[in-house]
Amino acid sequence: MRSLDDESRFRVHGHSFPRAAYENWRQGNAIASVASGLFALLGVWTFFLAGSTIEVDQRGTRLTAPRGVHEICWPEVQSVKMRGHAICFFGENKALAYNLLFAGKGKREFQEYVAQSIRERRIAADEPPGMNTLKLRQMYRNAKIRGWKVF
């Protein structure tokens, strides 16, 4: 018996939910269409989270994900916004955000190290004025050091 590798599994499941959403929408079944669409988005979201790593050291913070590597160095960080497991660093024209909600072991120690680094560098704990989604997206792109140019 042959087993599916991850790529084949993604192809099978990745295409079946969007197709089911479309078919249900064409048949007028809104609830099934929305549910299938949400499962398709969940699959895409999981793909982009898979293999992501977050590194924090004396130099700065790096987020390595399938879509690329983003980095912001400590001297560039002007402010930080922390909400639960989510942290967003803001620089002059850069931003780097990550969420530790699904992180495994060492989450507490990691958060303590980041909080200590923020205190040592006396980084302000607020969001820059006039921040909106479009500006944040552009700032996040500016933090990319290598990777896909699509996102």
Structural notes for this entry:
The chain has 151 residues and is an alpha+beta fold. The protein folds into two domains: 44 residues; 95 residues, Pleckstrin-homology domain (PH domain)/Phosphotyrosine-binding domain (PTB) (PH-domain like). Helix content is 43%, strand content 23%. The chain is built from four helices and seven strands. The strands form two sheets. It has a four-stranded antiparallel beta sheet with strand order 1-2-3-7. Strands 4-5-6 form a three-stranded antiparallel beta sheet. A hairpin with a 2-residue loop joins β2 and β3. α1 runs antiparallel to α2. The N and C termini lie far apart (39 Å).
What topology emerges from the helices and strands here?
Elements: H1 6-26, H2 30-49, E1 53-56, E2 60-65, E3 68-73, E4 79-83, E5 86-90, E6 95-99, H3 107-120, H4 133-142, E7 144-147
CATH architect. name of the largest domain: Roll
Poorly predicted regions are 1-15
Structural class: alpha+beta
The CATH superfamily name of the largest domain is Pleckstrin-homology domain (PH domain)/Phosphotyrosine-binding domain (PTB)
Distance between the termini: 39 Å
Strand arrangement, major sheet: 1-2-3-7
Biggest beta sheet summary:
4 strands, antiparallel
Helix/strand order, N-terminal first: HHEEEEEEHHE
* Rounded Rg: 19 Å
Classified by CATH, the class of the largest domain is Mainly Beta
> DSSP helix count?
4
Overall mean pLDDT stands at 76
CATH topology of the largest domain: PH-domain like
The number of E-state strands comes to: 7
Described by the principal axes of the CA atoms, the overall outline is elongated
Tally of separate domains: 2
Question: What is the helical fraction, as a range of percent?
Answer: 40-55%
Strand content: 15-25%
